[in-house]
UniProtKB/TrEMBL annotation:
InterPro entries: Bact_solute-bd_prot1, Chitin_NgcE, SBP, TAT_signal. Transmembrane segments: none annotated. Keywords: Signal, Transport. It comes from the Bacteria. Belongs to the bacterial solute-binding protein 1 family. This is N-acetylglucosamine/diacetylchitobiose ABC transporter substrate-binding protein. It is found in: Cell envelope. Pfam families: SBP_bac_1. The keyword Transport applies.
Amino acid sequence: MGSTPDVGRRDLVKRSAALGLIAVPSVSVLTACASGGDDDSNKVDKGKKTAKNPLAVNESAGLDVVIFDGGFGQQYAKDAEKEYSKAFPKTAGKVKHSATQKIQTTLQPRFNGGTPPDLIDNSGAEQMDFGTLVGKKQLTDLTPLLDAPSVDDPKKKVRDTLRPGVVEMGQFDGKQVWILYYAYTVYGVWYSKSNLEKLGVEYPETWDDMLAVCAKAKKKGIAGWTYPGKYPYYLPFSLYPFIAKIGGADVLDAIDNLEANAWKHPAVKAAFEAYYELYRKGYILKGTPGLTHIESQTAWNQGKALFIPNGSWVENEAKKTTPKDFQMAVGAPSSLDSGDKMPFGTLWASGGEPFIVPKSAKNPEGGMELLRIMLGEKSTKNFVQQVSSLTSLNGGTEGLSLPPGLASAQEVLKKAGKNVVNPRLQDWYVALQKQQIGVGALGEMMAGRMTPAEAIKKIQKFADATAKDDAVKKYKHV
């Protein structure tokens, strides 16, 4: 997504985020990707544990890093790798860096052969299925990294420097942490302050106001909304927190837990019907169902549509086509009515751009050490300046002049306070979220080929099938 969401990128997504042009591989394909064995004989010897080397990195061993080349690019990782070689001079020239948008296709043979990289940014449309990787015990527990001292303050553990919820996102069942989400993504309804000002309106805090703004825009020949029609799993970036706002965070928890009839909750029905009204009243940009994420973002930047569901990686990803006076901003989902369970300002914000260290990695300590460096203030500020996104380090923006979109993301995050939701469906059940719910139902509904009732029925059927599939490892909120 930034991942994409494809998040994930960025996974979410993720980053979320989907930046390749290939559909998400099926669970069966991803299962094959996680079939390699763990051979300790291939691992490099550990180094000596010291205050400067708390993870006992082999100071002369090579390091193999694969980065998802999406909305965040790869320069931030290259810069962190330089810091790694400064810390361990004998590794100079031994850090292998590669980048791809086709993570699963590129790395499947390496997992199968038991020779995966030491650190992977597992994001994008070809993101490997985390549930499968965890279930097949293919990942290294990152607890040693989290319990190591931070780069900036030896008195603080890395885990104590992270934003709320980041550690928990990397857990699936138990205390082990399998994933470190490096970016911190704010999801929502993105818009241009200048374009709203030209129309003489403000960001709509109620759904009635949203429809009124869209109606006014339509009279001017401007669409209310657009979205990546080819990757409609972007829609949940604003739809899921909308559902939570209407019915409470427990509704999303039930959905994540694959509970029977979870999708039949009245809040889901209300949210789906509200979004469907955007289609029914002609407020969706014509041709949107055929657009990629880049094409929809470009149309939005060109002022053809006012709103787009997205994650905070969009500012960097769309910068080439963003006008200088655009004043990019993000809004929390509008209130449906006075009966909403959560206040206006409720939004989805969570870790994005998921990093993993394979269990069969040759140098897992090196992979974790690079992550420790990336979570330092120097690397964080470099990331923020390069890609207009926060990291999971709780801070790192002091003294920086933030671009409009990132400044807005910080503002809405502060306003949300404790009213932040974190749906887990996109990292627990990737195929269900992207292929089935996103492409198979939401995309069809928003294109007018399926009613809200039909979409809900179909999604519930998909969720039930996943719940009954013994080949799919299940996870639950605790």
